[in-house]
């Protein structure tokens, strides 16, 4: 099952650019883009950083495709 | 040691090896090393390094403190080098078999050096591309 996420929506809602997010999380802009497009699943460490960054519960950020949001 | 210090140390080692390699190469080729030749051997790697500094400065100005590599880059490079390993292993084996089938019984070391150089350059270019994906 594919993991999908709401990172793009959350980022835009908070008015954060991909570059700013990359700087804050110490990752490349390409990685931000790949995660947002669901082309790359972040490591547990990065996933936890993302949860802390957006201050949302994990199920709000990541969920399995087909699962009820 | 900090990351920046390691980076500087690596650049210094590469530069030193390039310069020493230049002198060794000329000594093997029995070329008399005069001042202009020595200056060229020393200055060429230093000049070649300048674009790297300009690009790094441009990247810093444009992207701030965004790292050049992260966990995804490491994963991509790992996959790339795994692919390279198989291509080089089976590719060189297949090339040898084809050459043997064609009736080639010996290979000049000069030709081997050139083919290895082409291989190294292609792997390096591929690495740069893979790291930027």
TrEMBL record, chain A:
GO MF annotations in UniProt: DNA binding
One Pfam family from the record: HTH_3
InterPro entries documented for this protein: Cro/C1-type_HTH (IPR001387), Lambda_DNA-bd_dom_sf (IPR010982)
PANTHER family: TRACRIPTIONAL REGULATORY PROTEIN-RELATED-RELATED (PTHR46558), TRANSCRIPTIONAL REGULATOR, PBSX FAMILY (PTHR46558:SF9)
Highest rank taxon of the organism: Bacteria
Domain HTH cro/C1-type per the UniProt entry, residue ranges: 7-61
Species whose genome carries this gene: Sporolactobacillus terrae
Keyword line: DNA-binding
Coiled-coil ranges from the UniProt annotation: none
Annotated protein name in UniProt: Transcriptional regulator
From TrEMBL, chain B:
Name of the protein described by the UniProt record: DUF2178 domain-containing protein
Membrane-crossing segments per the record: 9-29, 35-55, 80-103, 109-131
UniProtKB keywords: Membrane, Transmembrane, Transmembrane helix
Lineage: Bacteria, Bacillati, Bacillota, Bacilli, Bacillales
